[in-house]
Structures are given as structure tokens and as C-alpha cells.
Write a structure and sequence with these properties.
- Helix content is 44%, strand content 14%.
- By secondary structure, the protein is α/β, with parallel strands linked by helices.
- The protein folds into two domains: 3-202, Spore Coat Polysaccharide Biosynthesis Protein SpsA, Chain A, CATH 3.90.550; 209-319, no CATH class.
- The protein has an eight-stranded mixed β-sheet with strand order 3-2-1-4-9-6-10-8, sandwiched between helices. The protein has a three-stranded mixed β-sheet with strand order 5-11-7.
- α10 (256-277) packs across α11.
- It starts with a strand and ends in a 12-residue tail after the last helix.
């Protein structure tokens, strides 16, 4: 099968150069690389198409790529990610099964990321932060999923065309909509830990928390808009925790029993965070410790904001 690797970006950058170089090293016989920047740039490489799109969001860029690809399979990568050498080899074999529409895999933190990026990656990979979704950040067991990030996502071209592509202005969250469309036509998405990519993380704390807040805002809104793969109790837990923490602090001012119970729960929580922060690299333990706590607050508050929002500003009119 011919594979079209589709990489979206704003402009040429160092991470994109790395991504293209790693794609060139793939252990797979038949693929092309399509890069979709806002503006054109020159890059001396064979088997590479550069398609300037103007300033549009990643979902729109990937939809536009359909006009230029020749592959039977579309493989989506972010420009700050790059594939393992056997990425396509491990993914494409699953398409021998006709009920599998898409294949995905973990996007792990590269070993050469700097300490603040590694700490951010460890926060995401922690069960206390991601719960059942830790397989997005570290290899886990082979399984079927119904929602997965598009930074490492491989789909049949005919299925992508059949469901109308992403066809949305949501970002982030475009991948949730795509996965829902696949679910609605009763096809499967297979997670394979060997379909491995590496993803440079946003560094702690500002950029990481900004990203978490944006994820949470959209997930909270999607609970109402796309409940089939967003209305899950686990997504509510950070909000319940944050507001429970605030309420408990207020009530503990007036009742000694509640104050003692509150302190015991708080200490237990901090102990759990510390245990999940332990890492071989001792330097990042305090960063991960604070990162997990701040991630809970950022996610909890912004999920609640999304839940209360009547509409998000980038919402596509097709979903009105």
C-alpha cells in the first residue's frame, strides 16, 4: 500500500526538518511526504511535496491535502513529532483487516528533550494526569480506541473521504470529531504500541498549562456537543477535585472535624502526587510534582468553563 505522510505546520522550523529527515529513514518501501505550511519554502528533498495553504488550522490543512496525495493510506504527523523507523511497517499490516479504518500509537517524549519538556512529558504520562489515556504518551497494550490524538494517526484514504475528512474548525478537538465519525460508520480504530512516534513536549509550566487549559476547555464543551466519545466520568474528576478542594477549605474554617478530615485528604493527595512524580532523573521530580498539581487545577477549571460555554469561538457552522 502507498502511504501519504501528511505534516501540517505554520512555517519551516527545526522540528519540521527533523520530522522530514526521520520520515526519509522509514523502513517502508512506498511512501510520499506532503508538508502543508502557511507559506511556501524551499527544502531540497526528493519524494516531498510542499503545499502552501495560507493561515488555516491543522484540520483544514489535512482536508486540503486530499487534492495532492496519491496514497491509499493517510498518515498524520505533527511538525513537532517524528516517527520510529518501523512506524509505517507496523501500522500498515493492520489494514489487511477490512473492519479497521485507522491505526494509532503512542507519541512519547524524546530522550533529547530538555528538562522542562521531559517534565511535561512525565506529567502527561502519569496516571494521575491522564488516567486511562496514558497510552497516548507511553506504549501500552494493543487495544481498540474510540478517541485518539491526530499527531500519530493513520487512516484509510477511502474512509477519510467517505466521512468527509475532519470538516471542522475546532482545534484542538478535531481528532475527537474524526474518531466519532469513524465510530458512527461502525469501523474500528486500533491502538498498537509499536506504531510509535516521538513528540516534543510543551515545556513546564506556562506553555504546558496553556495547552492543558485548551484541551480541557474543548473537552468540557464536547461533553455536550459530542457525548458519544466525550461524556465520560473520568473527564469530570479534575473539576470535582478542584471545586471539592475549594469547598472543603471554606467549610474547614467553621468545623474542626471537617478541618481534620480535609487535611488528611489533602495530605493523602499530596503523597499520591509525590509517588507518581518519582523518576529516574531526580532533577525532574519537583517539576513533575508541581506540574501534576497545576495540571489538575488548569484542567479542572477550564473543563468547567467549556461545560458552561454556549459556544466556542472557532465552532464551524456545519455543527450548528
Amino acid at each position: 500500500m502507498t502511504v501519504s505522510i501528511i505534516i501540517t505546520c505554520k512555517n519551516f522550523n527545526k522540528n519540521l526538518e527533523e520530522c522530514i529527515s526521520k520520515c526519509k529513514e522509514l523502513n517502508y518501501p512506498d511512501f510520499e511526504i506532503i508538508v502543508l505550511p502557511d507559506k511556501n519554502f524551499y527544502f531540497n528533498s526528493s519524494n516531498l511535496k510542499i503545499v502552501p495553504t495560507g493561515s488555516v488550522l491543522p484540520a483544514k490543512k489535512r482536508d486540503l491535502a486530499l487534492k495532492y496525495v496519491k496514497g491509499d493510506i493517510l498518515a498524520f504527523l505533527d511538525d513537532d513529532a517524528y516517527p520510529d523507523r518501523d512506524w509505517l511497517l507496523n501500522a500498515v499490516r493492520h489494514f489487511q483487516q477490512p473492519d479497521i479504518a485507522a491505526v494509532c500509537g503512542p507519541a512519547i517524549t524524546p530522550v533529547d528533550d530538555h528538562i522542562l519538556q521531559k517534565a511535561g512529558g512525565s506529567v502527561y504520562a502519569s496516571w494521575l494526569s491522564s488516567g486511562q489515556n496514558t497510552n497516548r504518551y507511553t506504549p501500552k497494550s494493543l487495544t481498540y480506541v474510540d478517541d485518539f490524538p491526530s499527531c500519530n494517526f493513520i487512516i484509510r484514504r477511502d474512509i477519510f473521504e467517505r466521512i468527509g475528512g475532519f470538516d471542522t474548525s475546532f482545534w484542538p478537538g478535531e481528532d475527537t470529531i474524526l474518531c466519532l465519525k469513524i465510530k458512527q460508520i461502525k469501523k474500528k480504530i486500533l491502538y498498537d504500541p509499536k506504531v510509535l512516534a516521538f513528540h516534543h513536549r510543551r515545556p513546564l509550566f506556562k506553555e504546558h498549562l496553556k495547552q492543558v487549559s485548551n484541551y480541557a476547555l474543548h473537552r468540557g464543551y464536547f461533553v455536550k456537543r459530542f457525548p458519544e466519545n466525550s461524556r465520560r466520568f473520568t473527564y469530570f474528576i479534575p473539576s470535582i477535585f478542584v471545586f471539592g478542594l475549594i469547598l472543603g477549605a471554606i467549610l474547614s474554617l467553621f468545623n474542626p472535624f471537617i478541618r481534620n478530615l480535609y487535611m488528611e485528604i489533602l495530605l493523602f493527595y499530596l503523597l499520591c502526587v509525590f509517588l507518581f512524580s518519582i523518576n529516574k532523573d531526580l532533577r525532574i521530580i519537583p517539576l513533575v510534582f508541581m506540574g501534576i498539581i497545576l495540571t489538575h487545577f488548569a484542567y479542572g477549571i477550564n473543563f468547567f468553563r467549556g461545560l458552561l460555554s454556549p459556544r466556542l469561538k472557532e465552532e464551524d457552522e456545519d455543527y450548528n
